[in-house]
Amino acid sequence: MALPGFGQFLNGHLFKGTVFIILEILVNILINFNLAILHSFTGEIQKAIDVTNYQWLMFYPCLYMFAMWDAYRNADGEVNNFSYIPFVFGALFITIGLIYSTSLKVFRVIIGPVFLPMLSLVPGLLLGFIIYKFIIFYKNQRNFSGDLLE
Description:
Elements: H1 6-10, H2 14-31, H3 33-41, H4 45-51, H5 54-57, H6 60-74, H7 85-100, H8 105-110, H9 112-149
Helix pairs in contact: 2-6, 3-4, 6-7, 7-9
């Protein structure tokens, strides 16, 4: 699919891209993530839970979302002081999904440590974009009102 670091390569930041790819490979190996994904996709959720190193998996969403934000920021995306907010909420909700993926019985049996965190990204990004748009709207309204007073 997509690896952290590929966006940096596309933007011409070869050193940073190499660092992100090395970090992704290292963390992926320490998590046993490919094996957990394999077990999840074949319906062997308990095996996926058993092979996963959760201490390293807790680090993965932050690495992944930071690499995406960095590539977005450097690709002439909408650059302002608040463009990181949807990425932060995405990483937060993935981590929350990861925490609950093994503690709630229904999620543990049906979804496991791969699918619930992935599904949790959607509400995280939605909330992050809503907050981002609200902040930008409020900031623009405030600037517009300030311009009228001058």
